[in-house]
Each structure stands twice: as C-alpha cells, then as structure tokens.
C-alpha cells in the first residue's frame, strides 16, 4: 500500500509520546521527516524515533516535496501561521487542538486550506476510537431513555513546571485551551448539535501569568439539555464522561485517554443492572492518521469537517469570555 508521508513541525511531547508512534503504527502513514528550530534537537528526536530526515527549520520541511501531510503540535499561538504556510506549500494539515486562539483565526486557517486545495483536521484523537460509535449507537437505541445531561472532566496537576508553554497567556495557555476543549467537543459530538450559551467560572492564577488553571462551566443546548464540566491543570488527574438519560446512564472512566485495554471500557447502567462494554484496544492516534490518509487519497471524506473546528472554537471563546466577565454568554451563529 502507498503510504502517506508525514512531516512533523516541532518536537513537542504530544508528538513524541503519542502522535508520531500513532502514525508509525497506522495502516497508512509513515513519518518521513521532523523539524525543529534546533537542528540538534530534531536530529536526536529523529534518531530516537527512527525518522529518516531531520531539519533545522520548519521552512525546510515544508519545502520537502516528499512530504504529503504535516502535523502541527506547536504552541497554540503558532498554529495559524504554520497551518497557513503549510497549506500554501501544498501539504495536508493535522493541527493539534485547540486549532488556534480564537474563531477568527480558525476561519482564516480553514479558508487558506480550502484555497490551497488541502485537507485540514483538528487533532481530537479520542473521537476516532470505536467506542464512541458504540456510545452513540446506545444513545440512539433509546436504552438509556432521553438524554437529560452530560457531565465531563479533564484535569491534571502540573503547577510547578515554570517553563511550560501552557502557563503563557499570550501563547494560548490555560486549562480551557489545553483540556477543557475535550468536554466541549464530546458533548457536541454526542448531542449532534451546537450549544446556545455558556456560563463559566475560572481560577486565574497570578503565579501562572493569569491563565485559567481551573475552569468549571455550564454549556446550554436546546431541548433543556446541558453539559456541566470542569477542566484544570492544578487538580488531581481525571478524564471522565457521564451521559445521563431518563432510564439509564453511560459512564466512561477514561473518556479521552486510551493507552490500555482497560482505558477503552465503559459502563451502561439501567434498571437491568450495570453492564461492561469492552472495546478491543486500538491506537486512536493511528486511526486519526488513517482518517487523514484515506481522505487525502480520495477514498472517503474526513470524518470531521474543518467547520467542526470553527464551531468548537466558538464555544471555547464563549467560555473564556464568560469566565473573564463572570457572566452568561450567548453563542452567536
């Protein structure tokens, strides 16, 4: 089989730990090159991960005619610039979440990709895991009745890492950008519609450049259904999901992380008891890469259109505005 040849812009931890191994384990992809502004760093990473080519600048990688697609795990404030430059170089784009710093930036990125005739996808790897198709099927079957609400969390505890880019406000730091985007995404995915308004509260930490180190919120959907969530970078680790229905509920103990067989299980609780649903282990990063490849080859459309990134960003914008103003924010359009 022909392989989609990937280039990686940067040596971020998410790329090294997860996305590069995922591409390498995919059916369709090969990591052909990696770039860093520090050539020694890219060379060391390339040697460690068996990547054949290392570059000392992002521009060199984008000029490589042997690269078909680019993965961007750069700090959030660099997503727009390098997505547009990669698109203009004719490369398909997988951009780490959140897609950018605000809705206007994402719209510009998507427009640039459309103009260049390349694909754009936001890297929400979890939604490629087959358990989400199963969860959607259970909801649609009516087994848990009518959905009354969704609750989701994503928190971790890392306040002492003073050099972490997540603690730089101008670079798109904060827990909403980093992990709060997941509960928003999953609620939109499972409900199949867009929210109408949000109300959030945040811990803005002067010790961390006043980024939101913790945020809790209410996201209102139509039909009197809501998502309640919390996200944080200064709290005990968890990443959970509960879908509450009138006659039952679905509990997902590890909603977004799926490193092991156990991580992939979830529970269905109804009047008939508590059932374990076990999905065989898959690498969700590999499935994400395959989705891009099959779309690049014209075999099928991307599972999630670029417009999804725009819609998710609208909710993120509203959550940040609400926390800043301590007010309910209606989402426009």
TrEMBL record:
Keyword Oxidoreductase tagged: yes
Family: Belongs to the Gfo/Idh/MocA family.
PANTHER family per UniProt: OXIDOREDUCTASES, TRANS-1,2-DIHYDROBENZENE-1,2-DIOL DEHYDROGENASE
SUPFAM superfamilies with a match to the protein in the record: Glyceraldehyde-3-phosphate dehydrogenase-like, C-terminal domain, NAD(P)-binding Rossmann-fold domains
Taxonomic source organism: Paenibacillus aestuarii
Domain of life of the source: Bacteria
Residues annotated as domain Gfo/Idh/MocA-like oxidoreductase N-terminal: 4-122
The protein's name: Gfo/Idh/MocA family protein
